[in-house]
Structure prediction request, 223 residues.
Amino acid sequence: EPEVTQTPSHQVTQMGQEVILRCVPISNHLYFYWYRQILGQKVEFLVSFYNNEISEKSEIFDDQFSVERPDGSNFTLKIRSTKLEDSAMYFCASSEPSLGELFFGEGSRLTVL
Amino acid sequence: RKEVEQDPGPFNVPEGATVAFNCTYSNSASQSFFWYRQDCRKEPKLLMSVYSSGNEDGRFTAQLNRASQYISLLIRDSKLSDSATYLCVVRPSGTYKYIFGTGTRLKVLA
Prediction:
């Protein structure tokens, strides 16, 4: 069964460092997403990406964040100058052209010290 | 008003019980509706999509009331394995954004 894969599963970084989280969406999907879940809180939308550009982003997704699809398979989230409050689980998701079900990866846990 | 609102629970029910969860959404132009299940520290997984006419999948029944902007999920004959957090998800029309509720925690007790 096709699945969304994410790496790393867990990353520990020092405050102020840059991190890149990687995702391989399902191959025939056209819409890609990043969501964040702080421990004990709800799943929050960060950004959606379609046709090689950001289609929508939330207030959380400020200049500290960026996304890229550097080749035909990877979809990355870059977080610059990390802060303690960036500690969370980051989920990548993808969706078919019909914008039906969202398929999630297993998540990347980011811990900022 | 929150975009998608759910009672956080927890709902503690005995095995075999029937339990119902509700969800309200604020955007009347919402187009797509889903129930997801999330186990502790895992990714959300689709339980079922919610259709206008209501739909059933085994022990699970979902209903949509567009006039009241309300979605429900009914679980019959609860199993221990149903213990999880149930997330209501809404996608407004004209957007790419799927909005999650805070989730309702269910614990099924032996």
In short: Chain B has a mean pLDDT of 94. The two ends of chain B are 37 Å apart (CA to CA).
